[in-house]
Amino acid sequence: MRAKRKRAGVRGALAAVATAGLVTGLITATGGTASAVPLKLTQKYTCKFPIINNDPIEIEITADMPATMNVGETVPEYDIKAVTKVSARAAQGLGVMGAVTLEGKATADVNVTLPGGTGNLPIKVVNTVAQTNIPNPAAAFTVDATGKSPGSLLTWADPGTAKFDVTGLKLHNMIARGADGAPVQLPPFGDEFETACTLDAGQSTLLHTMEIQGGSTDPDPDPGPDPDPGPSTGKQNVNTKVTPKQGGGQLTMAQSGDTVALSPVEEGAGGSSTGALQKVTVKDARNGATGWSLTGKVTDFTGGAGTIGADKLGWTPSCETAAGSASTCVPGTQGTVGGAGATLASAPDAAQTGGEFTVGAGLALDVPATAAAGDYAAVLTLTLT
Predict the structure, then answer these.
(1) Which among 296, 346, 358 has a CA at the least distance from the CA of 322?
(2) I need a labelling partner for 90 at 20 to 30 A (CA). Which of 136, 148, 223, 244 fits?
């Protein structure tokens, strides 16, 4: 019976503490250079625990973030604060089993609605819950949490309204410690446990609405004729430069942005880090019989924590042909991009070629479970010939 009381008390109280830690990393796609505005979001969650069953938690999230940003700006880090209200019932359960402190991790589900109707960016944010003292005798108490949102995760590619919603949380790697500092055993979990919490009905999820201003980041989507064209090249997250082949018109390429943000993967779990290639527009105004090919290759993903090989990045190409085009765009084959490269899209030779084509791809990086925590970056180079 004593073991059961330990599980109930620890999990009930830890839910509140971990929720505060969650909020320290909720904002994953807000920032900018404009004047900041104060934000506040209060949410109530219910966490179901053994023996004590449901236990309520209330968190208040506060932050200062800009009301506007510009197309082409990358989101920086922001300081986040949160206060979590913990029930006296949870504190009593902890006291019964001899716990005096709590610590662990919490993962938040955050959904970023991208501007311009271009889709959503679901993000899982892992946060560390600092060691927190439990009151004795038992009483309701609050847990303060601070942290920073991950920076450089997203660069705005389109104008419009962006929204940031906090939609859920999961507690994991939670530890209750006794007065001697040793973990309190929680059968059948042992030293650590995890649990999911449910957002109560009728709760608001909207933390912030931001206006993204400006137009395309492409400074010259349709340059004039070049008397001495050369090879066509483009680099995502560096810049784009396309010069045409010999002929009366041009074969050109323009990108809607130059940075791709892939979703985070939890350390030790491994899995697929996904995202979407920035939209590429190919224009063939050569009025000839020659087709074109758009290929891509990627460098290794490197950072201070180590390297993830280029062969771990795969894509699922897509291509659309604009009405009235003489050529028909053909998407490349789903598979590995790698350092050797692969075809993203093409149009075959024909009696008459030309037109406008929209090219994209879903991206997926297979992150090994052995990858250390940290930021990883690579350069994906696109070449149009």
Answers:
(1) 358
(2) 148
pLDDT at res. 229: 56
40 and 155 in a single domain? The answer is yes
Per-residue burial over 164-198, b = 16 or more CB atoms within 10 Å of its CB, e = otherwise = bbbebbbbbbbbbbeeeeeebebeeeeeebbbebe
| Element housing 88 (H / E) | helix 88-96
Tell me what pLDDT residue 262 has.
92
Element (H, E) at 280: strand 280-284
147 found inside a domain: yes
Q: With contact defined as beta carbons under 8 Å apart, do 100 and 134 qualify?
A: yes
Alpha carbon separation from 22 to 3, 42, 108, 152, 197 (Å, rounded): 27, 13, 6, 20, 12
In terms of domains, do 205 and 145 share one? yes
Helix (H, G, I), strand (E, B) or coil at 117: helix
Asked if residue 118 belongs to a domain, the reply is: yes
Q: CA 24, 198, 186 angle in degrees (round to 5)?
A: 80
Q: How many domains does the chain have?
A: 2
Q: Shortest CA distance to 73 belongs to which of 213, 252, 209, 226?
A: 213
Q: Determine whether 237 is exposed, middle or buried from the number of CB atoms within 10 Å of its CB (0-12, 13-18, 19+).
A: middle
DSSP for 11-63, written as a single string: HHHHHHHHHHHHHTT--SS---SSPEEEEEEEEEEEEEETTTEEEEEEEEEEE
In this structure, the chain runs to a length of 385
Residue 221 is assigned to a structural domain of this protein: no
Domain boundaries, position 273: 232-384
Residue whose structure tokens are 């510009």: 70
Q: Are residues 251 and 366 in the same domain?
A: yes
Average pLDDT by stretches of 10, the chain with 385 residues: 35 38 38 67 82 78 85 80 81 77 79 83 76 87 75 79 86 83 77 81 91 64 54 65 57 92 91 94 92 94 91 95 94 93 94 94 93 92 94
- On whether the CB atoms of residues 222 and 252 are closer than 8 A, the answer is yes
CA 298 to chain centre: 20
CB of 24 closer than 8 Å to CB of 146? yes
DSSP single-letter state for residue 75: P
Burial 60-79 (b: 16+ CB within 10 A, else e): bbebebbeebbbbbebeebe
Q: What's the pLDDT at 3? A: 35
CB 199 within 8 A of CB 217: no
